[in-house]
Amino acid sequence: MPFNRPTLQTLIDRALADMNSRLPEGDSRLAASVLNVLAYVNGGAASGLYGYLDWLSAQLMIDTCEQEYLDRWAGIWGVTRTAAAPATGNVTLTGSAGATVPAGSLLQRADGQQFRTSADVTLSAGTGTAAVTSIASGAAANTAAGVVLVLVSPVVGVNSSASVATGGLSGAADAEADDALRSRLLARIQTPPHGGSSNDYLSWSLEVAGVTRAWVYPQELGAGTVTVRFVRDNDTSLIPDAGEVATVQAYLDARRPVTAQVTVAAPIADTLNFQIQAVSPNTAAVQAAIQAELADLLLREATPGGTLYLSHIRAAISAAAGEANHVLVSPSADVVSATGHMPVMGAITWL
Predict the structure, then answer these.
(1) What is the DSSP secondary structure assignment for residue 168, as one 8-state letter?
(2) How far apart are the first and last CA of the chain?
(3) What is the pLDDT of residues 16-36, one digit of tens each?
(4) What is the rounded distance in angstroms from the CA atom of residue 32 to the CA atom of residue 54?
(5) Which of 46, 169, 220, 331 sits a CA distance of 20 to 30 A from 262?
């Protein structure tokens, strides 16, 4: 039987009734009486204690506890919150041939985000490429190619402005959110390690900073092989680059059974475009709601080598707030992805 926390007024009424029963010559219901004041004070104190017990009861269960207690529960089960990671990549510097940018030089983005060069770079033919790492960790450090960075301290013979090289600055990730950690912890409890099962590879992959979804394909490349594919939903690019794939590969190699041959690969993105006509009502708000529902559907159901059902696409459109009717022109059949391929959100054409 569930316990219902008494309200403040209920506790006050109980105190009033208790005092009246024990002191028949006094009436605690009189507003100006000492007994009335004591009843309100007692009720307030008891309500505070009930509140604390109510909060504490939530901390005793993994599915309801707050951050501090969630981290403690996770530590007991050997699950560690994934730390924030910095962005890395290359920037292109220009200036006089032979000029040198020393290691440790700071470059700053327009919003104040700073990056430090990893090694000395000497310009050749007026240009040079410097490897940089963001000072601050977190997804906000990811920077697209072509973005301008400025040297914080001038360097003789080097132009103050630099640009992010092809590939951008990537790999940065925020510290793991409570819901993601809670999900991994519950999975650890409900599906204990089995020395290299599919769930083990999935759990190991999700322990790498920035990895938000992963899929495991046993024996895809033959007997004794395991193929793992993953994406980074919070990165500048959903599909991981070669460096991010190498990071997950190294992490799994350190944990896999010695007899398993593990291959980590990035999914191949297949842009999925939509054609929708006769949307009713055909307003900007309804269109935006439909786009959000389709993006959420892909987040939930798009998998490498999987099938995205046409009926689910139609249901997602119908679930959009305000939508009354529509005709889905394209796709016109289930979206079946080839091995290693997965659909990603494309454009919507409104007919």
Answers:
(1) -
(2) 56
(3) 888 888 877 767 677 777 888
(4) 33
(5) 169
